[in-house]
Amino acid sequence: RVKGKIVFFNRPMDPTLLNTFRAYGGAVDQRVFGAARAAAYGAVGVIVRSVTTRYDNVPHTGVMIYNDSIPRIPAVAIGLQDADWLSEKLKSEPELQVRLRLACRTLPDAQSYNVVGDLLGSEKPQELIVVGGHIDSWDVGQGAHDDGAGCVQAMEVVDLFRRLNIRPKRTIRVVLFINEENGSRGSQAYGQYADTTALVHLAAIESDRGGFTPRGFTLQADSTVLTRVQAWLPYLRQASIDWIRRGGGGPDIGRIKTARALFGYVPDSQRYFDVHHSANDVFAAVHPREFELGSAAMAILTYLLSEYGL
Q1: d(Cα 157, Cα 132) in Å, to the nearest integer?
Q2: List of E strands, 24-91
Q3: 94 and 140 Cβ atoms separated by less than 8 Å
Q4: Rounded CA separation 125/8 (Å)
Q5: What pTM did the predictor assign?
Q6: Model pLDDT for residues 101-131, shown as the tens digit of each residue
């Protein structure tokens, strides 16, 4: 039934889930693997319902994974309004025909670089606390929330230290990772560096969930470290951080295997997938106060790590 046809994937994000990242994870396989799966059965193209929480007609893009042993077929995302229209139309016109015309293409790889800057520690400069985000973005928008906000928040950590005339005991390193969106080569390269350097990676903090109101930090570390940093919550609550709980640090810092603690900054997620990977992700969509609270939260945590260690 699929051979010679265009396959339409129309499974929405689950609106009953409070955690929108869980809802995203439950639907994004259609975009990531849909074309390869459909091509295996002889399909000639794929249409995917955008993986978003916003009911408009703006397509949301993202990484796709092809199988080299199967022909690569084109795939497009469509906005939710078009997806609902197409779904209803197919019920009344099962033989409906759709024409796809695409101009997108994958260009050859080009050399790119991580951006790294250090604020040297006064007492233990050989011990590093990494703060960072990823500097690449999808070209349909400006990448303001994903991940311009995270990159600027990382830079604002050291800027706040300098403006407040704070000399950290340990070195604060800002890393803007390249190529997180479709290959993670920046994090791979930094992970290889971390494995071989004589410098000690005490901890790393990643911001890659948008510039919204702070909620908490996820932490990848042993129980002793978790107990220690949870005692810092009274200070972090000054920037609206309510919790620190177990979880992953993030795709970029996750390859720093020698670090004692990997933190993921977690802002409120209810609006993130309104803008994620779409033309909605623009500078005007970032609320300055929410964004600045995130910078403050990361700076407080960085200060505590620098002064008291783990």
Answers
A1: 10
A2: 45-49, 75-78
A3: no
A4: 55
A5: 0.95
A6: 998 888 899 999 999 999 999 999 999 999 9
Reported residue count of the chain is 310
C-alpha distances out from residue 57 to 123, 132, 142, Å: 54, 32, 18
Closest CA to 273 of 57, 10, 49, 52: 52
Distance CA 295, CA 214 (A): 9
Angular region, 250: left φ>0, alpha ψ -120 to 50, beta rest: left
Per the structure block, which two tokens stand in for 306?
């620098």
Q: In what order do the strands lie in the sheet with 45-49?
A: 6-9, 45-49, 75-78
Strands ordered across the beta sheet of 170-177? 115-119, 170-177, 124-134, 200-206, 261-267, 214-220, 243-246
Cβ–Cβ under 8 Å, residues 212 and 271: yes
